[in-house]
Structure formats: structure tokens, C-alpha cells
Amino acid sequence: MCSKGETPQTINEATKIPKQPTQTQPGVSHEMQPTPLVHHLPSGDDHLEEYRAAGKLENKIALITGGDSGIGRSVACLFALEGASGIAITYLPREEKDAFETKERIEKQSKTEVFLICKDVGYEENAIEIVKQVVHKWGRIDILVNNASEQHLADSIENLSADQLERTFRTNIFGMFYLAKHAVPHMKKGSAIINTTSVTAYKGFANLLDYSSTKGAIVSFTRSLSQHLVERGIRVNAVAPGPIWTPLIVASFPSEKLETFGQKVPMKRPGQPSEVAPSYVFLASCDSSYMTGQVLHPNGGTVVNS
């Protein structure tokens, strides 16, 4: 069993989830047990296979929202391994430790420069400033990964407050509109936008009414934006993860629910960020040059109508 902050060495260790300390939004990686896998892919039950990079993103500039931890952190690490020259990561104040750990991890393993920006993406003035800073530093944006997200349980629709509803939509979908709006003028033909949606957009989730609704909106946003930008040569796709072991989960669900987290999917275990991030590499690279408006489904075997 891994202790808090310790990286698991096997897929069995990675998927055995003990009782967790209570976290508030946004969750943080360094308080989780076990720590989510970032850039190793599970291979069998007793070892981890190193990710094999192939220079798919050489000299690219990427902006990743919520890139400090979870799926965003793993995406940032794989982009760096694939040769991205610059990666900008947005995060919130409580996530500062995770953000600096991600920056240190990437700069130790690659030549990629990491630029940290502490901003809430849910407000247009912040999106304008984020894009302005990235463009000032590197002159362009080649890849935009709209990944920042939040979710809150509500046991009934009567108890879903107006404040929570607005907050969830502001982070999860308004932020994507704002960043795309202001990033697109700095993106050239061959650039890519990748949005993080969720399996809940397709299956629903009784106690995540507002979150699931935003994820459905992201699917429609992805499809519509792809058509809007196709003539400019900018591809827009999405990834719809299933139950993935990330700080968002620990900050959302009560501790007693976490020990069985992910066991209802056909693979009967939660996924790791390292198992989702390669989907983003694929969609960011020319390997997916004939794909736009599509959604990939790393979800442990749940079949959905996409």
C-alpha cells in the first residue's frame, strides 16, 4: 500500500484506494494516496512500461488549463516528452504546490519551458490576460487544451443552489468559450483545440446534475466549434474520460465512496491520468489530421453512443 504522496509501482497499487483525507475544491495531488500516475502506462499487474515519445509535438506551444494536476498534469508531461518547446499551465491559488511540482517535473525530464499562470478561467478578463501572457512570451498558441473543471455533489435538484450552478458552468464551459475566443486569433492552420468532457455527458449522473450538463455542453461546443474553424485549418476535438483517479474526485466525493471508485466499469478499476493523456497527444499531433469534431473515450470499457 502506498503512503500519501508516494508514487505506486504497480497497477494494483495504483488502483487500491484507501480512506482519503478530506479535501475541498480544488483538490490537490500531494494529499492523495496513492499519487495518480502521470507519465507511465500500466502494463500488466506488476510493472509499468515507460511512455515512448516520438517527437510528435516538436517546437509546439501549448496552453493547458488545469495543468497542475490530474489529467492536465499528465498531458503536460507527455507534451513535453513529445518535444513541445513551451507549455503554459493555468492553476488556482490553492494548487500552487502542485503547479510548481509539475513545472519541476517537466523541466527535469525535458528541454520544455513551463510557464505558470495563476488565473481562474471562468472570467473573460482572465482569459484575455492568460492568452496575452502566452502570446507575449512565445508569439503564438499551437495547442489549446481546455481541461480545467470542477464538480459538486447535490443530493437533489431542490438543493442545487444558483451560486453552485453558475460556478460550475462558469468554470467548465464559459472558460472554454472565453479561451477559444481569445486564443484562436493567435492560432494558425494546423493548430488544435482539445476539450475535456466526460462519460457523464453520455450516461448522466444522478448527483452531478450541473457537472453532467456542462459536459454535455462541451460535446456540442466541440462539434460546433470544429465546423466553425474547419476552414481555418484548426481542428477541434474532445476527450471524455471515465472514472479517473484525480484530485477532482477526492475533493468531490465523501471518503467512504472512494474505496470502490471506478469498480463499476467493465475493467472494474479506476483509470489513471497516464492512461488518458495519450489521447490528447494523438489529437494534438498530425496523427489525427483527418479528425475534427470527434470525441475519444478512455473510460474503462463503458460503451456510449458518441
UniProtKB/TrEMBL annotation:
PANTHER family associated with the record:
NADPH-DEPENDENT ALDEHYDE REDUCTASE 1, CHLOROPLASTIC (PTHR48107:SF16), NADPH-DEPENDENT ALDEHYDE REDUCTASE-LIKE PROTEIN, CHLOROPLASTIC-RELATED (PTHR48107)
Q: Cross-referenced Pfam families, in alphabetical order? A: adh_short_C2 (PF13561)
Per the UniProt record, the source organism is Glomus cerebriforme
A GO MF annotation of the entry reads: oxidoreductase activity, acting on CH-OH group of donors
Q: Which UniProt keywords apply?
A: NADP, Oxidoreductase
The region called Disordered is annotated at 1-31
UniProt-listed SUPFAM superfamilies? NAD(P)-binding Rossmann-fold domains
What family does the Swiss-Prot or TrEMBL record give for this protein? Belongs to the short-chain dehydrogenases/reductases (SDR) family.
Q: Where is the composition biased (Polar residues)?
A: 1-13
- Which InterPro entries does this one have? NAD(P)-bd_dom_sf, Sc_DH/Rdtase_CS, SDR_fam
Q: What is this protein called?
A: Oxidoreductase
